[in-house]
Request: fold
Amino acid sequence: MNWNRMLSGAVVVLLLQGRSLAADAFQSGSRLKDPLKQLVLDRRVIAETQGVRLALGQVRKEPRNPLFQADRPWENALNNLYPNVVFDEEERRFKLWYKCVLADTNSAAKLSPPNLINGVGWLLCYATSRDGLAWDKPELGLQSFDGSTQNNAVARDVANAGIFKDLHDPDPARRYKLIYDVGVGQLRVRFSPDGLHWGAPLAPKGFGSRNGDTHNNAFWDERLGNYVLSTRLYPGERLVARFESSDFLNWKNSGVVLRSTPAEGKLCQTYCLSMFPYANGYLGFVMMYKAGSDRTVACELAWSADSVAWERIAPGVPFIPRGPANSYDSGCIYAQAGPPAVKDGQLWVYYGGSREVHRGWKRHCLPCLARVRLDGFAGYEPVAADQPGTLLTQPLRCVADDLRVSADVRGALRAGLAGVAGYGLDDCEPVRTDATDRVIRWKGGRTLAGLKGTTVQIQFQLDDAKLYAFSGVELPATADRK
Reply:
């Protein structure tokens, strides 16, 4: 028996298994939709609080940021980047489409044939990654630059592109969808079977003369049974507009869905909003442009119950903070379109970070990664570190066997059902470690199993703990879409 050969083969198998397991550790963000998960930032959920405050979750930036440089001749200016990120579960890899502006006249002239939109040339570039960290820029042979097609551009003359993979559409030729503009009020759509080879531009209906000129973000919403788009309305101020469509070609205007506060006015404007379903609502990354001061762009967190009415969770406080002066992301941050991917209990949020502020065409915005714990967008924590606080939910209907919580816990977290004997705070087995979807149990091993169909109010006691979400209950139908 050849033991060396067997050991060698075993090592190969283990390596292959390890590689497979590493790939399988990623999950698409489309799995984050859960009608039974309640984020505590959802204003429909919490009725009363005492001694607690809502605070944003902690984002950790990848030490290797930026993940790649603008190191190709055609990458003249990765202006705003506008990253569109898909973790493809079928192919087990990340796909990134990003914005490349040919801002220099001599660079724009190398397009064949040359063409300008808003005075500059445009390429839509493509990169892939197996681990989400090391990225490849494949030579695709699709677009000509400087007499060669050996580049990673998939399309040209597409400004401010939004791209997603659409598993809903039965037509494989329309699996990938692209929406962009060729000037304010001139939106276009294109379809592709693979995200690389795009069909002819089509002019959709329903848009006004002041829509576009921002990162156009679209997705198929299973809850609504329609496509949803966020873009811009610009009547002299940057406002977020929403549209809805059943076929991606005919769009209905929902109007303005988010704008700066009256106190901010035009000094700080809503530059763009990338939205996605999460738990039983919607979350969004809203880029806030300080037009009246230093021209930086900050990424804040927004929430909506229905994708129509939006509110910023902590106005003026960034969710992904800009870096220190002169660092790679000290000037502007533009978060990805598409839901974050999930790995090892963390959400992977990609963004474009630039040292330069929002001024002129010639600035590089490079791809970066930030991570936040699952459900950890914002949570309630005690105001005083040495004193516990409490919160009481609205009436909620028990629909699962277990009440589960996601929380960061250094002290203790307890849950009780108001007025239900045997389910008080004192009956609860305390949670004393960080938890994601951790089952709450009461004395005697009680769970929610015997309470299905009943309506309860849950009281949480937080002692040096931060609660992000809980599940196992649902909102009454009357509150579901408020």
User: Anything to note?
Assistant: The chain has two domains: 32-53+378-479, 60-373. Residues 1-24, 478-482 have pLDDT under 50 and may be disordered. The longest helix spans residues 3-24.
